[in-house]
Amino acid sequence: MVSSFRPPLDYLLELLPWLQLYPHSVHVTAVLVEYCTSTGRSKQGVATSLFARLKDVSPENRKVPVYIRHSSLRLPFHPVNPVIMVGPGTGLAPFCGFIQDRSTAIKESNGLYY
Fold first, then answer.
1. What is the pLDDT of residues 83-107, one digit of tens each?
2. 56-94 burial, b for 16+ CB within 10 Å, e for fewer?
3. GO terms for molecular function, please (predicted)?
């Protein structure tokens, strides 16, 4: 082992194999979130506590309501404008979508910015 060898993290990440796509399956891993606030109130995560309650329901009666609404979140028109993203309770999905959108907009842009 060479102690002076310290490759950059991005180099090491490039060596990892790509994740395989499984288009006909969905896997969800959830951990029940439980915590106490600074005032001593007990709190649980909304989705994880719902899933925890569903484990005691018979499979044919397990139903999770899903609603699709149009997003009101919009990125700035020019993809070079910086963005600060804060999403308490939204998870990573909206951020990943915004990053993909921004990346695509920059790649497809033929304009000059000055």
1. 787 766 667 777 788 888 878 877 7
2. eeeeeeeeeeeeeeeeeeeeeeebeeeeeeeeeeeeeee
3. flavin adenine dinucleotide binding; FMN binding; NADPH-hemoprotein reductase activity
